Amino acid sequence: MKKNMAAKGVSSPALPDKPKLKRTVKPPQRVIPMNHRSKQNSELDSNRQTETMTSNTENEEEIQARRQAEEEEKEKQRKIEEARKLREQREAERQSRLRLSKNLEAVRPTASVSGKQDAAENTPVIFDYDASYEPAPQTLPGILAADLECLLLTIHLSSNGEIILHRGKTNKSVDTGVGLSASYTVLLTWLLSLVPENFNFLHGRTLDQEDRSSMFVPPFYVLGLQQIWLDEHLCLVVAVTPVEQFDARYVPVKSKKTKVKDEIKDSSPFQQHVSKYLSVNTLHTVCPWLQDMVSVEVTCPKKDKSIPQSYIYRPPLPNITTKPLSTFVQVNHDPQAARKVFNSSVGFFFQTVDSDETFCDQIYNESSVKYDTQNTMSLIYKKIFCEPRSMMAIFNRILQEGLDLSGIRLLYPTQQLLSLASGQTFPASAQGDVNVLNNIGPVLAIALRGTFARTIWLDAVGPSDPALARRTDPNSLCALFGGLSRDECLLFCPRNITRVHTELTRWFGGRVPPGGVIDVGTPYTRKDHLRSGSPKRGKGKRGHESRDEKTVVPPHRPPAALTATTKNDIFLIISPLVPLRAMGIILSTCQRRGYQIRGVRRSRLTTRKCNYLGIDSSVIGVFCPGSSGFDIESATFSETTDHQAIAPSTFLQIQKENATHSAASLIEAFMIQLTMQGIMNSIQGNTEVDLSSKHLFHAARFSDSLLATLGGDFSKCIDYDIEVNPSSYIVPKLYTNPEVEEIVVLLLLGHEVLKSCGLFVGKLLNLVPYSKSPVISTVKDGFELLGIKWLPSLSMSQAKEVTPFEVGDRSWKENIHTLTSEPALVLVLRSVGAFKKLESAIPKPDKKSNHMDFLMSKTAEEAYSFARSFFMDRELFCDPQSRPLLPYLPQSRYLTGTPSNLSMSVMKPELLKESIFEIMQSGPRPLTTVLLIKPRAVKRHLPKILKKVVQESFHIIGLRLELLDKEATISLFDEDDMDETQLQRHIDHMTSGPCVLLSLQRENAVKKLLDLVGPKDPVAARRQSQFLWRGVFGADSVLNAFHVSSNYVCGILELNKFFPDGLCCEITEDLKTENITCPAVDNIIDIKYQDHRSLVIEDQTDSIDSSSPRQLLLQTTCVVLNPLLSKCLIRSHLPSIDIIEGLINNGFELVGSRMIWFNKEQAEHFLHLIDAGSFAQVPTLLSGPSIVLALQRDNAVISFDSYLGSNYGSESLIGKYGKNIIRPADLKQVMS
Q1: CA-CA distance, 1119 to 362, in Å (whole number)?
Q2: What are the φ and ψ backbone dihedral angles of 305, each rounded to 5 degrees?
Q3: Cα(314)–Cα(598) distance, rounded to whole angstroms?
Q4: How far apart are CA 165 and CA 828, in angstroms?
Q5: For the segment 277-321, what is each residue's pLDDT rounded down to a tens digit?
Q6: Most buried residue, 147, 628, 783, 961, by most Cβ within 10 Å?
């Protein structure tokens, strides 16, 4: 049968095999004895009976085994069938839940409550495949008796964390709007402290008289509390009940006839007691622990010894309203209102609440952009929230981190829910419920929302094990309030995204009823015909809309336990005291807290603008520094005139959910970052005023009128295609030099780059935010930020101007579309070698992506064209505090302090009025400095030093050989930097022989020369580089070969000291400004010298060794090297230096040297004295500076030519330059 079934393809594992017979058959005997026949027959019968009995027994066992196997197989098949049905049932349930999830997602609100804005980012459906089917946690105790009076208190909110007054039916906030507000969190802390520690009173038990007298009696007990969106309003609802000690007989009854509402007339004694208590108390009177709040001091962890004053920042305490509680806590006189509200089931959706603030109507094309908004939650147990100081510390941490309290519920988990969570079985008796309430108590669930909220809150909470947290992160919340061990952890926070969503659903989401039918109400959708709430539309239009809405019956929607807030804009004003190089810190701090840049402008404030912005009158002098009528130290101003600041302020237009509420915490974050990075130390060192956050930052609510006051749209640019004829303008050929400051323009493109661009800007400016893991900047000295502008998108003309592709390229059209559809941040930067430095700092583009994230100008012409497309001249300002080259530039004449420690009060207005566009179009700017070659170096290395000077492209425009006196020597050194012994060593060396004074000219001359000579100690110079001049020619810190001008101002002073007649060069604007004569008029040359001077010849016969022929033949001659020898014939080669080297190598001693520029009269007289025979060389002498050398040697006059070679040798000095060397022919001409 099995074979037949197998042949037909049918499996038959259940069929048993045919049993095999075990019968043994003996072979028959061939011979049967007859006499034994009977005996054999009897034996055979007995054997047959035995075999039959054995066979029957075996058959029964086999049948029993077969039956048992069949029953086991049937049981197996039954279980398989049950498992299959269970799988099908679970799959059907899963598919049902999946369909329900999709259906809920389909009806999820897509807009805010009013329909003016889209729904907030990351507001998912609050649904989980398991948690949504669990028993819902109770919002009121399950053993609450029906006859126990329960009163409903309502606190209306304009947004998450912002309380409004309920009287007058206006949305006026209870806070002043200045500083960090903690009114809502203090109110929550006070209400949570009124949750009873013992719930026996709900079971009918009363306290003993001793217990009553020994314990604090609260005004009432709080049994329920939750923040909820209910009946188209966001509010905090509280359920309160009388305490055991409450006695209605002691409630006073009003005897006067007053006009009161009917509902108040019929109110119960407990309702009157609560109303009276709220009317006579404030948060300050009911919260005595507020007196224990103190600020934690913040200091810079890096000690800078160069800054004598250390700034300590003490954050101000949060503002708490002083209004009576009755002004914002409304008592509902309906005795059943509390049970109705708290027994209502919540919905499955976030609701986006419209705040009363306005936002800009500009289109940003960011519907698909995610700004990393996250949701998280925590469970806080009774031991924490019943302790006000602990709970207040947790709420303050939420405020400081800039997170929104999107949900809060006081819940009583059911026994089934606790069993699911802990795996334990709880008794179902009422006595068991009371024990659970007394031992575990209600649980406080809080939901938080914000940018990187999950990451930030996990860092704040710390490790889940309190013992581990106290060792690794002692300032974390778990370490402070988490309990003694992991088993007693009183603060729970989910760690991953999936668990966060599950817990949010478990504690804040709705539940699916047994029938699976959910009432989701009417979803909120976008109403495109409504404006954003901008004040442009006026009150009349709002009133018209409200009249229309009265005729429409509002749709039913279930309450929502989780809410978000719409986006709104604010203005952030940064005072000039904040250095612009901190812009990276400011932008990154904004973006870290969810604020996105919507506009940037730099402009000078006036007193009237300050008043319009609401800046306090005591700090207007800080926001308008240096203007007439202001004193930054006293911060006073004149109200009758409108003065303008000399330094610009920075305006930021930033946008975020619930932006105004979080603005104060953002400013405090700025102050902490600036303090931690040491910026506040330098700012405080510039003024005697004790600086606080109000001196540096001010936040103002956005409005169109305020935007117009600040100059209109921040992203506005000149459209040259419309306002200027583009064909009439050609970008000129611009000059640039990598050794000096260059200006470059950088564009940051796209939403993904801009939403985290602050850190990159900080790296460019070499000042990044402080963090536990330090961020290393790849830019060494940082750039100077001249201009910054945010654009929602580029215009077509701007895109065509900046695109790196040409018309016809494959990527041109795509790049133009990208530039005109995405936002951009434009930076104008300045630094030494800016083009090369910026190119190395920009991240390399991703080859897999065609999107261009960074675009920079490659040449000076492109930089000028880019800047002209986005900025006007009045929008670009220099930043002296971020300009390391400033001490070596002429602009340093406008300073009275060092650039690293500048104050606006010591800056002259001329320093900030330079035109950036004029600088970009200007040509080379040669500067002058002084190089003094000390006596030892003059004697040993003068020709080599002069060659190095010329090789570094310096032009010698002044030269003197001079023996310094003691007074001149002391003026070169700072006596405070050395002791008397070291100063005397310098004096002895400087007065031991002649020094060579050189005035050098080239671009960036002061800084370049300082970099070439190196440190004052030659040993340190040799360690730094083998090519530094002091390391090559110096011996020690005294014999270090050189003295150079330390900065531009010092160089000008030394020029006036050592070259009073002027310099031998063409006049420049800088030299003209410094009143230095160019070309110099040599006052030593005297045509009528015979009338004013006499020649004295000293007889040194006694002092001369007669045995020395050289001393007997010693002669002094005077040689003039005409201007042609001071011009470079070949690059970095000066013939005059070769001549000086040849003279010294041939034994001539340099006893005098000067550089002069002949005028016509002096040139003609000089040629007459040397018997030139004609004035043909006069034009040559007038063409430039000449070098006059006084030389000594034996037979210096007679044998001068022979010492320098033959006139016929083309390689000799005389052969190459002899015609340009004017030398006397005899002693008579020498004396002339």
Answers
A1: 78
A2: -70, -25
A3: 31
A4: 47
A5: 999 999 999 998 888 888 888 888 865 555 455 788 888 888 899
A6: 783
